[in-house]
């Protein structure tokens, strides 16, 4: 269970929120909504311990997220930013790279498993041989989502997963996140998309 309790954050001298609290139960898809600049991305970064909170606490399974525990916590998380910085030139390298990291030792990479995830996400197999720069923003994010699916971490944080997508693909992404949640992952997604939020198990709107 992820618990955010009475937190405040200060970014660049501006107070983003004061006394923000919510709980996300395991295996649920939770949506963070709110106007542009209200602090949604900063909140996701705080959940990873990359931003400091001013008061309150964040806990995961009853353990406090602190500057010293954050690195360990991140081993159990996947994060997909709105515009992922992609370190590889080729899609085939991009998808296999995370499996070479020490943090993901023991997680198998297989092309056939990947293609199974791609089918759920509406991605064509021919993308595998393409250059990353040739993918659209929506395709990039879905490719990263498929990798998160294979990594199968307990907590998935994703920023605006449907903002670059048409309605059909948005539905596939929501269905995919729900599939990951039904398998046991907890998903926290930032979104402006009302239809997406309606398909989540819970939401918070930051004012
Ligand atoms: N590194 C930083 N230093 C200073 N201020 C920052 C930093 N990152 C974000 N901010 C400020 O914090 C506020 C919240 O930014 P954030 O990106 O979290 O908002 P958001 O709700 O995700 O916005 P959007 O929906 O437009 O992506 C903004 O006013 C932004 O300018």
UniProtKB/TrEMBL annotation:
UniProt keyword annotation of Chloroplast present: no
Keywords noted in UniProt: ATP-binding, Nucleotide-binding
Pfam families the record matches: ABC_tran (PF00005)
Lineage top rank: taxon: Bacteria
GO molecular function: ATP binding
Segments forming domain ABC transporter: 2-207
Protein name: ABC transporter ATP-binding protein
Native organism: Xylanibacter muris
